[in-house]
Amino acid sequence: MAATALPRPLAGVLAAVAVSLTGTRVSAIAVPWFVLVTTGSPVWTGVVAFAEMAPYVVVKLMAGPLLDRIGPRRVSLAGDVVSAGAAGAIALLHALSLLPLGVLAALVAVIGAARGPGDLAKSIMVPEAADLGRVPLERATGLMGVVERLAQLVGPIAGGAMVAALGAPAGLAVSAVCFALGSVVVAWALPPGMGRRAAAPSAQSAQSAQSAQSAQEDGPDGYWRRFGQGWAFLRGQPLLLVLIGTVAVTNLLDAAFAQVLGPMWAEESGSGPAIWGLSRGFMGLTAIGGGLVAAALAHRLRRRPVFFAAFLVAGPPQYLILAVDGVPVWAVLAVFGVGGFCGGFLNPILGAVTYERVPRDLLGRVGALQTSLAFSGIPVAGVLAGAAVAAAGLAPVLVACGVVYGLTTTLAGLHPAARDMDRLRGQGPRASDAVPEPAGGR
């Protein structure tokens, strides 16, 4: 029985990710709906989304060297505590009728600035947790994908139902509780010593070690030396660059879909926030099934065809189905369900490919750059979507997004660098290279 139990390091990280992401998913329903029903403006809805995502991307981008220097555990704790305070302040100020749009945008920006490095810190602890628990890397990333999809299931359903019944501020109060609980899990559930400052790299990354040592000796310039190391490493990874570009485009489209296009479809079609939240939640439910299959079979699957075929099925059909006038709810649920199942294969493959290529002592720097670049279009997605809908209407914008999504994933799959997705399978940095043995010889 003990042999089948999930090891404590991985269980702790996954629990922290689960509660924090659930809070994020709830607020993703509550904030856009609050702005939309308050102002009636898709442009303002996009502006508030920009206020959250711009700090998210910028702060995450700059946090990598600091994260490697002080350790992901502290960064995760700080991010959750600050996010909880800001989300709780939104709910409280609205109850006191002291929440103009400017204040809302400022508090949402605080949440974004805290969530960026906090989310990155949790993801960086996944390979360490896998090493300490002696769990295969692909299985760990598969379970991480399942947890993310579980949050996508619980968060939108809870958020949509709560917004419909009690209003958007109640959803933000739940988000605050989830963020606070995430900090408790990190503080108390992770084993002592886990998530600390990165250990010295191995001989296989000796050049990185020398650069890291010189960076520490640079004093005030050490931060920028470490920042530059991340860029230098990433520039030499064609496969990672192709994947980053693909995810950057699809993230922009998905953000426009979630922040503006989906809520507008819910309002114009008369479906309301509950149906929109149900659709997104059902997608999360089927994605859990896809993630479980990926976790069980990842070592047997060829990554390239599975990854890009899953991307193609998971993305474009969602946009196209909502562009159909009078589409029944069951049809929307069917398309979202199939897309969710296929989407469950994406993050496990992305995570495994990344962790196999990036030395553990560079995970903060490279991870910050990688995710920030992949998220770079999200801050403007809502603004662009709102302006496009105002100019051309909802249905044409949905069709255009679906076409761009399909072209992007198809061209990326045909790129020569994509052929290397299986080349380093199982050859990532070893636990003994970058992760110290836990106290007590666990």
Features:
globular, 18 helices, mainly alpha, disordered C terminus, 79% helix
Please render the helix and strand layout as text.
Blueprint: H1 8-39, H2 42-70, H3 72-95, H4 101-133, H5 137-166, H6 168-188, H7 206-217, H8 222-235, H9 238-269, H10 272-297, H11 303-314, H12 316-322, H13 329-343, H14 346-357, H15 363-374, H16 378-392, H17 394-414, H18 431-434
Helix pairs in contact: 1-2, 1-4, 1-5, 1-6, 1-9, 2-4, 2-8, 2-9, 2-15, 2-16, 3-4, 3-6, 4-5, 4-15, 5-6, 5-10, 5-14, 7-8, 8-15, 9-10, 9-15, 9-16, 9-17, 10-13, 11-13, 11-17, 12-13, 12-17, 16-17
Structure description:
With 442 residues, the protein is mainly α. The chain contains 18 helices and no strands. The chain has helices at 8-39, 42-70, 72-95, 101-133, 137-166, 168-188, 206-217, 222-235, 238-269, 272-297, 303-314, 316-322, 329-343, 346-357, 363-374, 378-392, 394-414, 431-434. It is globular and about 50 Å long. 56% of the residues are buried. The model is unreliable at 200-221 and 430-442 (pLDDT under 50).
Largest sheet: none
SSE-based structural type: mainly alpha
Q: How much helix is in the residues?
A: over 70%
Morphology call: globular
SSE string, helices as H and strands as E: HHHHHHHHHHHHHHHHHH
The overall pLDDT average reads 81
Contiguous runs where pLDDT drops below 50 for at least 5 residues? 200-221, 430-442
